[in-house]
Write a structure and sequence with these properties.
By secondary structure, the chain is an alpha+beta fold. Helix content is 39%, strand content 29%. It has helices spanning 4-12, 40-60, 100-115; strands spanning 17-24, 29-34, 68-73, 76-82, 87-93. It has a 5-stranded antiparallel β-sheet, with helices on both faces.
Length: 117
Amino acid sequence: MATIRDVVEALGGRAGVDAVVVVGRDGLPIDSRTRDGVDADNVAALLPSVIKGVGELGVAGGRGEFSTGVLEFGQGLAVVAVLSADALLVVLVQPATNVGALLLDLRRHRSAIAGLL
């Protein structure tokens, strides 16, 4: 049977992925795989407030609850997702990375991934 570690390793092994961090709502990392100097603890600490803010934006804008988003930065993308009421996910990717397949996989397998926590 797969574990959350297996999922993190599989996502982290994709081309262009610099980091995968599964985060509790308290901002503590549950599991992570990082490279290129990404600080998983700092990313984990910041993610809940980011998710809270975009969640409030969705409600205020009549879009409903937040589930998944792509944030673009000068040095790459951050794919952020709510896995469950207690867990969040961030995948940091390099600028030229196509995240379409990643987004589709997260949509399809979100509940299975959450079930591993």
